[in-house]
Amino acid sequence: MTENDIRKCQKASLDILLEFQQACERQGLQYYLTAGTLLGAIRHRGFIPWDDDIDVAMPRKDYDRLAELCFHPEYFLQNHRTESHYPYCFTKLRKNGTYAKEKWLSVIPMNQGIYIDIFPLDICPDSDFLGRLFFKVIELLNSGLLARESTEFHCGYMKWYMRFLFQIVRRLPNRILFWIRESIRVLFRNISSGKRLCTVNGSHGYPREVYQREWFSQTIEMEFEGYMFQAPIGWDELLRNMYGDYRIPVREEGHFNEVGME
């Protein structure tokens, strides 16, 4: 993708973020810049130059009200409730008339378009053992969904029992996997104190996507591409937990590592 192409994607993604922000404000829903978008706001006051993704997070109670939001007709929400083949447990807000090439869409007759990712903030178990188990179970269920919906998905499990469980999961109907996924989330929520939150659906995994609740106890306004958006009060702790020393991008073997890419 050329620099000009990246910038076009960034402009479309920013339009979506602005539409999302206005809809949340009308309905009184809370959101936060997170992950690479939060990193870009701190380091560049906008997009990381080589990145065109936008990530936001919402408290679970607000995330569950996304269907109440009214968007301009050129925007549409995409999740497993709006499209039965959608394999992820987070939501995308897409813009019609744009095109985003995604490998996992290879065999799915779904709507396409440039998007922002909207992640729910869920309660994470207090112990490391249960936290890792929570992330691993959700990953397994998501892998089963992706394997059935994309010809390009590759199972990376090496242990025999994980490969065995994967073969079972991938044969279950989507509606069953969605039900199991939600039941697991509620189970772990009910046996946890609520002191830790997480985005169990993210790409960084445990423990980099586990947060202290107080990091989200308040919001601050943060500049991103000339506009002001909401960010968590504990943004520094969040970024250090996710990326380590996040202020300087690191180039390794001809490409940026996760500190630079996300």
Protein architecture, described:
The structure is a single chain. With 262 residues, the protein is an alpha+beta fold. The protein contains eight helices and eleven strands. Strand 8 (219-224) and strand 9 form a beta hairpin.
Short structural description:
With 262 residues, the chain is α+β, with helices and mostly antiparallel strands. 39% of the residues lie in helices and 18% in strands.
Count the E strands: 11
Shape: globular
Mean pLDDT: 88
Class from helix and strand fractions: alpha+beta
Radius of gyration: 18 Å
Query: Low-confidence stretches at least 5 residues in length (pLDDT < 50)?
Result: 103-110, 251-262
Write the H/E string, N to C. Answer: HEHEHEEEHHHEEEEHEEH
Distance linking N and C termini: 17 Å
Largest sheet: 7 strands, mixed
Proportion in helices: 25-40%
Q: Helix segment count? A: 8
Strand content: 15-25%
How would the blueprint of this fold be written?
Blueprint: H1 3-27, E1 32-33, H2 35-44, E2 55-59, H3 60-63, E3 75-78, E4 91-95, E5 115-123, H4 128-149, H5 160-169, H6 174-190, E6 196-198, E7 210-212, E8 219-224, E9 227-232, H7 235-243, E10 251-252, E11 255-256, H8 258-261
Parallel strand pairs: 2-5
Antiparallel strand pairs: 1-2, 3-4, 4-5, 5-6, 6-7, 8-9, 10-11
Helix pairs in contact: 4-5, 4-6
